[in-house]
């Protein structure tokens, strides 16, 4: 089986995002960029499935600016076999991403597509579900465990009530949650090897997909700021403050 | 505009998150509530939904395929109804987030996730970058598909409406997926997302037993829900459904007590809209103190039992 793993280049999760003064967006110039953390988990899971003999090939795909090659190289260094960069300078919304991925799936015919459950920039949490819908395939979102069999995949999902287990027929779409695994760090030899792994370059037009945005961002603003309050010196003072707030216990 | 709201229900009652979504929907247009399920409980929930202030009509779809709200089965039901609606809204719960994009893709609509304000018929505010920025976006699609952040909207009143209930036929099982089981946390405490007080613990709690021994008595004393940081959940102190943050639950209680939580932005994203934030942490430079209304720099293993004793 082949596994397809879409990955996105986003602001590094340790960087505090700054809103541009003109309110047009978040400033990502000269900011450290990395692979979306949930996508790293998706890559790791795909590579582990390959290492366990349950998959033959792991293909990473990214849609974005030329520098998105960096995150594809990371995926290759982690153990993906080859990569596809679908290059565009435009901001591509999840719906358009899903449409492009649908065409990639049609060409590659993977048994499983594993994506991160959301990207930490736009926090949309849509692409996996949209891809599943466009393909009329089942989806196992927010996965914390995946068990792959010949014709089905069992997914344990992190849901509001706890952990839900669903069984999906293959081919299927899975989106990775935080506790699916702990991604490995790529070793230096593997980083070197990754440079020799194949990377195809395409454009959205190659797939015949219209990526014009449907949403117009009117403005991006800082959220209301919370001011730090006061520090109290003792538990007694804290108790007095809480009682003043009307906390009865 | 007429808006279809997928109502989530449990034991015959409408979930509180859906009450907030109905409030958001009423800002866009006339609200019709869709209740899907397979049993008498769904019918009870439809009766309850019909009484909610602002709901003009209830659609009830009963089908065994809807019992577990599998997205593969619910999405076709919703998309089939959308010919008659301008917008589809559902809460940004794990279930809503699972279903809505499937509907949006089928309708060829770009979904607007996790809205916190309705600013016009097609203009909405939503947090991005873990709540470090608020984007105002305008849709150019002919229909809207939206998920709603429950803490950002008041709950619609449970009484005051007298909607009619229309039975509609189910769309059956898509045959793609099946429910195997749910491992739910048993708790007598209030629900994390709707509790007035939340006591949350972080990695500093050391292990599952210590977490239980330190956090639980304080939560019990206050009638509070228990929450946790990602670090505490990752370390296995408590299960995933207690996680507060960007990718966990979003809470906005009257009082949020953060115990041994340093305050990573991903955690702050889930609780910074709380009315009053109390932080107890022995590191006086912990970022949590930058947003806390009341801070206590102390060893939590001394301070929390003392606090529990004195309240």
From TrEMBL, chain A:
Domain Electron transfer flavoprotein alpha/beta-subunit N-terminal: 23-211
Entry coiled-coil feature ranges: none
Sorted UniProt keywords: Electron transport, Transport
SUPFAM superfamilies: Adenine nucleotide alpha hydrolases-like
InterPro entries linked to this entry: ET-Flavoprotein_bsu_CS, ETF_a/b_N, ETF_b, ETF_beta_N, Rossmann-like_a/b/a_fold
GO MF annotation terms: electron transfer activity
Keyword Transport among record annotations: yes
GO biological process, one term: carboxylic acid catabolic process
Pfam families tied to this protein: ETF
Cofactor: AMP
Oligomeric and partner information: Heterodimer of an alpha and a beta subunit.
Functional note: The electron transfer flavoprotein serves as a specific electron acceptor for other dehydrogenases. It transfers the electrons to the main respiratory chain via ETF-ubiquinone oxidoreductase (ETF dehydrogenase).
Family: Belongs to the ETF beta-subunit/FixA family.
Entry protein name: Electron transfer flavoprotein subunit beta
Species of provenance: Altericroceibacterium spongiae
Automatic annotation (TrEMBL), chain B:
Pfam family, any one: ETF
InterPro entries found in the cross-reference section: DHS-like_NAD/FAD-binding_dom, ETF_a/b_N, ETF_a/FixB, ETF_alpha_N, ETF_asu_C, ETF_asu_C_CS, Rossmann-like_a/b/a_fold
Keyword tags: Electron transport, FAD, Flavoprotein, Transport
Molecular function GO labels: electron transfer activity; flavin adenine dinucleotide binding
GO BP terms in the entry: fatty acid beta-oxidation using acyl-CoA dehydrogenase
Cofactor note: Binds 1 FAD per dimer.
Binding of FAD, residues: 203, 229-230, 243-247, 260-267, 281
Residue ranges constituting the Electron transfer flavoprotein alpha/beta-subunit N-terminal domain according to the UniProt record: 3-183
CDD domains attached to this UniProt entry: ETF_alpha
Highest taxon of source: Bacteria
Requisite cofactors: FAD
Similarity comment text for this entry: Belongs to the ETF alpha-subunit/FixB family.
Subunit note: Heterodimer of an alpha and a beta subunit.
PANTHER family tied to this protein: ELECTRON TRANSFER FLAVOPROTEIN ALPHA, ELECTRON TRANSFER FLAVOPROTEIN SUBUNIT ALPHA, MITOCHONDRIAL
Function per UniProt: The electron transfer flavoprotein serves as a specific electron acceptor for other dehydrogenases. It transfers the electrons to the main respiratory chain via ETF-ubiquinone oxidoreductase (ETF dehydrogenase).
Protein name: Electron transfer flavoprotein subunit alpha
UniProt source species: Altericroceibacterium spongiae
Biological classification of the source: Bacteria, Pseudomonadati, Pseudomonadota, Alphaproteobacteria, Sphingomonadales
């Amino acid at each position: 089986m082949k596994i397809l793993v879409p990955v996105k280049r986003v602001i590094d999760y340790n960087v505090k995002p700054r809103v541009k003064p003109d309110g047009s967006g978040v400033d990502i110039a000269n900011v450290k960029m990395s692979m979306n953390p949930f996508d790293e988990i998706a890559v790791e899971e795909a590579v582990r499935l390959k290492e366990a003999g349950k998959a033959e090939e792991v293909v990473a795909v990214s849609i974005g600016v030329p520098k998105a090659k960096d995150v594809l190289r990371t995926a290759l260094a982690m153990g993906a076999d080859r990569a596809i960069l679908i290059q565009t300078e435009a901001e591509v919304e999840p719906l358009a991403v899903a449409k492009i991925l649908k065409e990639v799936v049609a060409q590659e015919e993977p048994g499983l597509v594993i994506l991160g459950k959301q990207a930490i920039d736009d926090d949309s949490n849509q692409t996996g579900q949209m891809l599943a819908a466009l393909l009329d395939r089942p989806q196992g979102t927010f996965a914390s465990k995946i068990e792959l069999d010949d014709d089905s995949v069992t997914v344990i999902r992190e849901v509001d009530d706890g952990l839900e287990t669903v069984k999906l027929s293959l081919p299927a779409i899975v989106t990775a949650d935080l506790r699916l695994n702990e991604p490995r760090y790529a070793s230096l030899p593997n980083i070197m090897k990754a440079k020799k792994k194949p990377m195809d370059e395409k454009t959205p037009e190659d797939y015949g997909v219209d990526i014009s945005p449907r949403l117009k961002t009117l403005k991006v603003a800082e959220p209301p700021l919370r001011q730090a309050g006061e520090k109290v010196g003792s538990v007694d003072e804290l108790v007095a403050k809480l009682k003043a707030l009307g906390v009865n216990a | 505009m007429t808006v279809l709201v997928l109502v989530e229900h449990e034991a015959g009652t409408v979930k509180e998150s859906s009450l907030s979504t109905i409030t958001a929907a009423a800002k866009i247009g006339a609200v019709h509530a869709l209740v899907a399920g397979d049993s008498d409980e769904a019918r009870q929930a439809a009766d309850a939904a019909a009484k909610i202030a602002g709901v003009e009509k209830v659609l009830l779809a009963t089908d065994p395929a809807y019992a577990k709200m599998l997205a593969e089965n619910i999405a076709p039901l919703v998309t089939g109804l959308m010919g008659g609606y301008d917008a589809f809204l559902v809460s940004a719960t794990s279930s809503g987030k699972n279903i809505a994009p499937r509907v949006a893709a089928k309708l060829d609509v770009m979904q607007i996730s996790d809205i916190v304000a309705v600013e016009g018929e097609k203009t909405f505010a939503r947090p991005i970058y873990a709540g470090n920025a608020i984007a105002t976006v305008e849709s150019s699609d002919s229909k809207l598909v939206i998920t709603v952040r429950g803490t950002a909207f008041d709950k619609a009143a449970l009484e005051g409406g007298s909607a009619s209930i229309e039975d509609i036929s189910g769309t059956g099982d898509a045959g793609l997926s099946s429910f195997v089981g749910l491992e739910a946390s048993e708790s007598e405490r209030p629900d994390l997302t709707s509790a007035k007080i939340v006591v949350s613990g972080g990695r500093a709690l050391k292990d599952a037993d210590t977490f239980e021994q330190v956090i639980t008595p304080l939560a019990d004393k206050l009638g509070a829900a228990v929450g946790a940081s990602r670090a505490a959940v990752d370390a296995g102190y408590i299960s995933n459904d207690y996680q507060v943050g960007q990718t966990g639950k979003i809470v906005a209680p009257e009082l949020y007590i953060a115990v041994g939580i340093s305050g990573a932005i991903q955690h702050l994203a889930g609780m910074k809209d709380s009315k009053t934030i109390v932080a107890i942490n022995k590191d006086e430079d912990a970022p949590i103190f930058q947003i806390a209304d009341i801070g206590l720099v102390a060893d939590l293993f001394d301070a929390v039992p003392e606090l529990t004793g004195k309240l």
